[in-house]
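Thread amino acids onto this structure.
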């Protein structure tokens, strides 16, 4: 079984994107690719089947500098956004759950602390998070408010030098293995504006319940966060008011997903091509049939276009020229293509595609979640619809 999965991964690069990367970017990509090939691939199918995230990977990931990789200072790697994107691509080539773990730690937890935290908060949390000694989760979604977080019911009531949190956050990645949560809640005493808090796990009134029986992202912990009169010191509040706080974190994470999903697509395409060249039906490799070639060409073309979209977005981000709707397009397009490519691979592999002997079934199930979280495909379509028409069509 492992022999099939461990076969050296061939990365498609039809438009010679390597010529557009500098030596540091290529080194970062190779280092993470090697980690995924040697440490992740031999274990990931079992982790998925056992519904478990292997915490043993955390120290190695920290040594690779992937947590909060774009943050300057505070013992973070200070890489550019293209390198960060390549990290996400390589991690998700292994599994979307692994990329999720790193996305949440960096883009959704370290980023808001770096961007909106006090100096005291940055010093307290960022170096330990970069080393993987503290793990974070991000609580925005609620049982009744997913696509529309503005409706959130979680409240932060001001009480002297504390805020009292009450409410429930749902579908929270890393929840059960986290040491702290970035929690977004409305404050009735501050015009009902959304405020953000760093809530330490041991804070009384804060409880976490893991969600099981998932068919997707099984090698990732997903949890419910429960706040029952949870008293959080005011010094744990982030220096930002309004939904632009959590939404600016989403821009970061969605950017990483755009790259990451292409990693999963590349893994599937590699598997489909190899299988098609070696699987004999009607006395010929199935790769010799026109219908199979058409599928492979569609995958190959989509991957090439998705790589170019992500790279240009990364270059814009590195120059500070990007805007959120560009990120929406990349997230929407690349995840949708990756999901299609995973499904096509599953089809090309026939019955073999439904087993864990191959990767495509796992990627396909994972990508169903990736298409939903961080804004569903249709929410990004509406964000772009608003951008080009000027008319918001959410309500
Ligand atoms: P709207 O009125 O448009 O905006 C409210 C305020 O936010 C500002 N804003 C942004 N700021 C930065 N970046 C963005 N992308 C922003 N989008 C909006 C906006 O300027 C405004 O600021 P101000 O100063 O005027 O107050 O907000 P709305 O309530 O109408 O929302 C529109 C909509 C639908 C686009 C938004 O609600 C949305 O994006 N919904 C999707 C929700 C979502 O993506 N949730 C993700 C949860 S986290 C997650 O899934 C993690 S998965 C983790 C893993 O990888 O495992
Ligand atoms: P809903 O909002 O109920 O949407 C259901 C359907 O209705 C979708 O097809 C949607 O596109 C459609 N729809 C909704 N509104 C409109 C509209 N106006 N027009 C047209 N169609 C519409 N959240 C966090 O805060 N932190 C996390 O760490 C996190 N991790 C997650 C991990 C996993 C594995 C999953 C599955 C989810 C995670 N989420 C997390 C939650 C995720 O962000 C939400 O699931 C997502 O935002 C969608 O919300 P929902 O599931 O409530 O779907």
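Threaded sequence (395 positions):
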């Amino acid at each position: 079984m492992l022999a099939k999965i461990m076969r050296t991964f061939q990365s498609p690069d039809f438009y010679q994107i390597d010529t557009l990367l500098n030596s540091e970017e290529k080194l970062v990509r190779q280092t993470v690719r090697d980690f995924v090939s040697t440490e992740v691939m031999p274990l990931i199918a079992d982790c998925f089947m056992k519904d478990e995230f292997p915490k043993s990977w955390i120290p190695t990931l920290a040594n690779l500098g992937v947590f909060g990789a774009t943050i300057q200072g505070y013992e973070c790697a200070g890489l550019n956004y293209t390198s960060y994107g390549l990290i996400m691509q390589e991690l998700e080539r292994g599994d979307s759950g692994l990329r999720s773990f790193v996305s949440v730690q960096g883009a959704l937890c370290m980023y808001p602390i770096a961007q909106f935290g006090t100096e005291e908060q940055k010093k307290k949390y960022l170096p330990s998070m970069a080393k993987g000694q503290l793990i974070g989760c991000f609580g925005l979604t609620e049982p009744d408010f997913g696509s529309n977080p503005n409706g959130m019911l979680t409240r932060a009531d001001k009480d002297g030098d504390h805020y009292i949190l009450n409410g429930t956050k749902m579908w929270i990645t890393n929840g059960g293995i986290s040491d702290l949560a970035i929690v977004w809640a409305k404050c009735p005493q501050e015009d009902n504006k959304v405020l953000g808090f760093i809530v330490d796990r041991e804070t009384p009134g804060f409880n976490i319940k893991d969600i099981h029986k998932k068919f997707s992202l099984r090698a990732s912990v997903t949890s419910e966060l429960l706040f029952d009169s949870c008293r959080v010191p005011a010094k744990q509040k982030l220096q930002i008011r309004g939904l632009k706080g959590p939404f600016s974190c989403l821009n970061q994470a969605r950017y990483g997903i755009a790259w990451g999903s292409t990693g999963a697509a590349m893994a599937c395409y590699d598997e489909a091509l190899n299988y098609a060249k070696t699987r004999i039906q009607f006395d010929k490799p199935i790769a010799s049939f026109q219908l199979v070639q058409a599928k492979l060409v569609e995958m190959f073309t989509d991957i090439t276009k998705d790589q170019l979209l992500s790279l240009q977005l990364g270059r814009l981000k590195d120059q500070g020229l990007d805007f959120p709707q560009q990120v929406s397009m990349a997230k929407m397009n690349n995840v949708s293509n990756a999901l299609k490519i995973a499904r096509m691979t599953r089809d090309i592999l026939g019955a073999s595609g439904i087993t864990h002997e191959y990767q495509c079934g796992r990627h396909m199930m994972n990508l169903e979640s990736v298409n939903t979280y961080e804004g569903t495909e249709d929410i990004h379509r509406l964000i772009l619809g608003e951008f080009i028409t000027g008319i918001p069509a959410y309500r």
